[in-house]
Write a structure and sequence with these properties.
By secondary structure, this protein is mainly beta. It has a domain at 1-28 and 154-206. 10% of the residues lie in helices and 44% in strands. The protein has 2 helices and 20 strands. The chain has helices spanning 8-16, 18-29; strands at 3-6, 35-36, 39-42, 45-48, 52-53, 66-67, 75-79, 82-87, 90-95, 98-102, 109-110, 118-122, 125-130, 133-137, 147-150, 157-158, 166-170, 173-178, 181-187, 193-200. It has a 6-stranded mixed sheet, covered by helices on one side. A hairpin with a 2-residue loop joins strand 18 and strand 19.
Length: 206
């Protein structure tokens, strides 16, 4: 696990934007198709602009991992105009004559949770966690769309960090960063160690 020391300026902006980020997550979840509609007014008359299309792009982990061949039994799918491959909770895309691990697109839905998932409670909400990815259960008439990729929930607690998590220091406080999600180590009931999400960044390397 690597260690990074972050500046005070970043630290202050990180915790200042914590509450704003939670609200931003709610707004962004309503705009999964990459389109924005704006209500505007001119000389007392209001009107709505046409949706503005955004070019889709892949979201990569901070530390990229490549494989020569895909695991046996993988699935291929398209989402937002982009091609993905999925197997055992890990997402890939083509990269030259090999493949690279990518982050799944928020809003993507799967039929069955990956083997080994854990349940994460945040207030009354239930999340399912596997390999650094969080899912929520949804109501769907389609048996192929039972769980949806979600933003990491602030306040959620897991018992083990992803292997790629980096140890960072912010104003003397030790946190753990996994692709823009910051965790802090906590002590749970019974003395068991856990890791709580304290901040989620919407910025991911493209």
């Amino acid at each position: 696990m690597r260690t990074r020391i972050l500046s005070t300026v970043f630290a202050l902006s990180t915790f200042t934007l914590l509450s704003e980020n939670v609200e931003a997550q709610s707004r962004s979840s309503k705009n999964q198709k990459g389109k924005i509609e704006r209500n505007m007014s001119h000389k007392g008359h209001s009107y709505r602009t046409k949706p503005i299309g955004r070019k889709p792009y892949y979201r990569y982990p901070r530390h990229r991992r490549y494989v020569r061949t895909l695991p046996y039994g993988h699935r291929r799918f398209y989402f937002g105009g982009l091609q993905y491959y999925f197997h055992a909770g890990i997402y890939y895309t083509s990269y030259g004559d090999s493949y690279v691990v990518v982050l799944p697109p928020p809003g993507f839905r799967i039929a069955v949770l990956p083997v080994g998932y854990v349940r994460v409670m945040v207030g009354p909400s239930i999340y399912y966690y596997h390999s650094g990815i969080y899912y929520t259960e949804i109501e769907s008439r389609n048996d192929q769309e039972n769980y949806e990729v979600a933003e990491p929930p602030v306040g959620g607690i897991i018992e083990a960090l992803p292997e790629e998590a980096e140890k960072v220091e912010i104003d003397g406080k030790v946190l753990y960063d996994h692709n823009g999600t910051l965790y802090k180590e906590i002590q749970q009931k019974g003395g068991k160690i856990g890791y709580e999400i304290v901040y989620v960044s919407n910025e991911t390397e493209a």
